[in-house]
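lol so apparently i was supposed to do this last week
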Amino acid sequence: MNKNQIMDKAEENLLHVYNRFPVVFDHGKGVFLYDDEDEEYLDFASGIGVMAFGYGNEDYEEALVAQIKKITHTSNLFYHEPMIEAAEKLCKVSSMDKVFFTNSGAEAIEGALKTAKKYAYLKKGAGDYEVIAMENSFHGRTVGSLSVTGTEHYREPFYPLMSGVKFATFNDFGSILANLSDKTCAIILETVQGEGGLYPADKEFLTKVRQLCDEEDILLILDEVQCGMGRTGTMYAFEQYGIKPDILTTAKALGNGVPVGAFAVTDKVAVSSLEPGDHGTTYGGNPLCTAAVSQVLDLFDEYKLLEHVKKITPYFEQVLDVLVNKYDFITAKRGLGLMQGLVLTVPVKEVVTKALLDEHLVVLSAGKDVLRLLPPLVITEQDIDLFKEKIERVFDTFS
Ligand SMILES: *Cc1c(COP(=O)(O)O)cnc(C)c1O
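anyway here it is w/ pyridoxal-5'-phosphate bound
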């Protein structure tokens, strides 16, 4: 099929829920993607924060191929080694105690919400528990995860959603208190808001939320689906705040391209929440996906990837600062580690499209006015220089 045939067939057969860019990607190598005509694109989006090692990583591929040749799926009715290994490694790097593997980020959120509800149910008996979520947050597209997503226009067509969700203002502790009631069972937030526009939690805010949760025996759910897995320079962003969640959600880069997520809980939560019969999944944690997780976590060590992210971040930030100073229409830079955004007063959608089509540079938007950059974690200074050249040529057309 040529490009036009592919695009036509997509319209014919796929439910139209995405306005896709007119590009057909065929393969990738390192931080570069290649389209159907073998044209090269620099990728500063990583498939929305998924491809931490970039494309075509041989260590990763070998581990997957080996697992495919053994077994790709059994079910959760049996044991298999890849899941057990992945769970042990994930508990270790997250400092959580028990993990449940899912197939996506949204499913990790579903599991986290059910866990919090069950925890409160066991503590206080039946009741209509409330969850405090954040305005401007994003937690996924399933009904439960949508219920705690703070963008009204995503939610509105699907009311009624899960009841008892209250929205507080991110980084405003007073707003949390204003939404608190004796029915509150959990507070859910992204340690760094991704889709909402690259807002890191303030340290004081998160510390106070943690304290409040301890005092009231409310569970703190940190959604690190986007900001976790080394993206900010620590395996999980919460490590930089000196606090720990009761429930952690993780996905995106967890499998470096295979669909896998997880929620992880502390022992305190594990002993008094979900029990056999309460939760399950057919695919979740299958041998293929957990072999990928296991290999991803090994490769973080082997490549010293966290050190690399810490080392390369100042260079990236410096380049972004140069851009902020150079172009009047960039009003701010925001983010943490290799999760950065530039706030623009020119239409971000146009910038993203121009970058892709004219400069073969893949970037993302976030919120209504933020250019979002999520490069593969393995980027080098040379890649960042190439990014700068390309994005400057795009920005020049807006000056
Ligand atoms: C992407 C994302 C999700 C949803 O993950 P899916 O795998 O798309 O279901 C949830 N939370 C955050 C913070 C995300 O960035």
